[in-house]
Specification:
- This protein has one domain.
- The protein is built from 1 helix and 4 strands.
- β3 and β4 form a beta hairpin.
């Protein structure tokens, strides 16, 4: 089972992480550690969807 850490050393299950819907492929995608500081700005689930969404 995959867990993410919160700042208070409590683990958060992957299914409990925030999710967004990709406007291009209409699939849900979950929060990732690398998006921690820019989560509010993340719109697309992948580079491919980002390129399709801009064209």
């Amino acid at each position: 089972m995959v867990h993410a850490k919160r700042s208070s050393n409590k683990t958060v299950r992957k299914r409990d992480l925030p999710q967004k819907m990709c406007p291009v492929c209409q699939r849900p995608f979950s929060w990732r550690k690398k998006w921690e500081s820019v989560w509010e700005e993340v719109v697309y689930c992948s580079r491919a969807c980002r390129q399709k969404g801009r064209s």
